[in-house]
Write a structure and sequence with these properties.
With about 30 residues, the protein is mainly α. It contains 2 helices and no strands. Helix 1 (about 1-15) packs across helix 2. About 90% of the residues lie in helices and about 0% in strands. It has helices at about 1-15, 15-25.
Length: about 30
Amino acid sequence: MKETIELKISGMHCAGCVGSVEGALRKV
């Protein structure tokens, strides 16, 4: 579960990167 929390924090720190990742995941 720790990894998930870290990912969320990273997402908040780099919203731009997360936006690109979410877009790619949605396509898949």
